[in-house]
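hey so u asked for the seq, here:
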Amino acid sequence: MSEISSRQKQLEAFDRLLTIMDELREQCPWDRKQTIDSLRHLTIEETFELSDAILDNDLEEIKKELGDILLHIVFYAKIGSEKKAFDISTVINSLCEKLIRRHPHIYGDTEVQDEEAVKQNWEKIKLKEKGNKSVLGGVPRSLPALIKSMRIQEKARGVGFDWEEKGQVWDKVEEEMQEFKAEFNAAENKTIDKDKATGEFGDLLFSLINYARFIDINPEEALEKTNKKFIHRFQYLEKSASDSGKKLQDMSLSEMDKFWNEAKNQ
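ran it, structure tokens below
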């Protein structure tokens, strides 16, 4: 298939989707009822479903979930056109213009040496466009805290505020660990200042996220993989206990550990 015929098929498919969206908005009681606000939580759910498919490296599911998210984009644009605020063409053209502006090394005469320079230019141009008084002003308030920490650190790095070497970052992790231990030492039988310990624990997490970023680990992805691993092993434990005619609440820790260790090899 030639590049031209491939692009034509893509355009035809997109046109078909827009036509179906028009028909659904006119004829389907559920689709007619939807608003930008009512779609919001559904869009968030679809985004997490795409995230699951990506973590599973399931290309077929990724394809399906991308379709669901594309439907939402077209749906929002349809509502926007009804309100005479925007339509899908203005959404796409606005995106194209932004991409051109933020890639001056492709569409202008700016020279860059590497990926890091591209990211720094992007953040500087974005800051200027949005008119934010703070580099961190573009971080969404509703982001989950772990992801927000990573974005805060990335944006600070974009203007040169960052550690120079990963060894320095690890030193900070160890420093925060000691400070947290001083506030919450399990070996000491004393009353814990919960607010202060919470603050120190937050500092420790922030430093660990910083170190993960420095060694090119996505902390959100890493934690989610550990979550999935724990779920798999715990469900194996539950099934093994049930197959043995036992209930978890009636088993000792040593009995559960036996099944848990078996799960590690599954």
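DSSP finds twelve helices and no strands in the chain. The first helix runs from residue 3 to 27.
lmk if thats what u needed
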